[in-house]
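Ticket #4471: structure export looks truncated?
Reporter: QA, pipeline team
Priority: medium

Steps to reproduce: submit the single chain below to the structure queue and open the exported record.
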Amino acid sequence: MPPRRRPGHRRSPRWQHRLEGPNLRRSGAGNDVDRAGQRLALGGSGLTPTAPGHAKVPLIIPALLIAGSAVSILSTDLYVPSLPHLPAYFDTSAETVQLTMSLNLLCFAAAQLVHGPLSDRFGRRPVLLAGMAGFLIFTIVCGLAPSIEVLIAARALQGVMACAQAVVGLAIIRDLYSGPGSVRLLAAYGMAVAMAPAVGPLIGGHVHVWFGWRANFGLLALAVMVVTVLLWRYLPETTQPDREALAPRRLGRSYGALLSGRRYLGYSLVMAAAMGGLFAFITAGPFVFIDRLGVATNHYGLYQAVIVLAFFFGSLAANRGVNRIGIEALLRLGLSLMAAATLVPLMLLVLGLEHPATLTFGFALYTLGMGPLFATAPVKALDATPATRGAASAMLGTLQMAGAGLAALAVGVLHDGSAWPLAWTLLASGLLTAVIYGIARPWKS
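Actual output as written to the record:
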């Protein structure tokens, strides 16, 4: 006769019982074991890794993190093709509509400074699940917004909640992996997550044409709900909660150490500047391609898909090449490609060769360079600081999305109906990455 379970006891997922192997052992003191300053608690299984970068982490964990990042990114890319149509719908200006992008990104950036320490204090799992629940609520509010003011506010709050996945997901990856293993995972993570902005505008453009812009938020809400349920069911805790993580003095010391660390700040600001160029395109691209160049709303996604797939292939190259040429060389290769790419749109405009295909080539070259950069720079940044990884990944994400939000705000303020504001913003982003990397020299220990 099978043993009876205790009342209220929930059976652990089956994969947790399959984790035993040569690289895992049972912990002698509870469910946690110290590993390079981090701990792994496998949801009551009592099984922990014995070495960093172990290969026995169940595939479902990175798969769920990728899914969470994908829906977070879809919150922007799914309704991007609708942006040029919203000024007429709400009887407002293009600059006002673009605030739904820039404020979302800036709030996404700022809130990471809160979610990171919260995940150190209460654990990764509860903070991630709470963020996803709030993400779902404000996505529904966006879809029901009766005015542009409500939509802007809901998009800002949506960014506050959606960012939990970004910062906590990165912290979980760094909890479980290290060295080249983390680079390979981040590259694979980038490749998979890149598919969201590739297919998002394709889907969003057709949904807009068939059902209207509100339907995109309904579709997003459904996706967020499914991913949230799966995360609740399968995601384990990967760190030991730290009761002192929210102490004001400790937070001040942690963030102060991060901002004064040349290596950490150098890699982080390079990523922030690079992200600015990407989101300048995501914000202004629909107005240039649809309003100025006459691309159909449901075809715009094809051009963005090419640009995003270039990031996919850049990440794939990083995944394959990290062991051959090393992390720093791979990072410099990405920066070089991006620097060259920033000149292309400007040259096309000067020569009068403005066309959807030619502009797409220039932006695709830029994102091709972003692949190696974003597979390597987070690893170098987080390895350069003794601060807790929750706070470090929070600051890293904050700086990235602040760069994205400021660039989106800039192209909105400079909007004149032409492609020039976008070209100048991309050039500024490329120059900043090179200047920051050269001045900070983060590769120097």
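Status: closed, not a bug. The export was complete when the record was re-opened. Leaving a note from the reviewer for reference: The CA atoms of residues 318 and 372 lie 5 Å apart.
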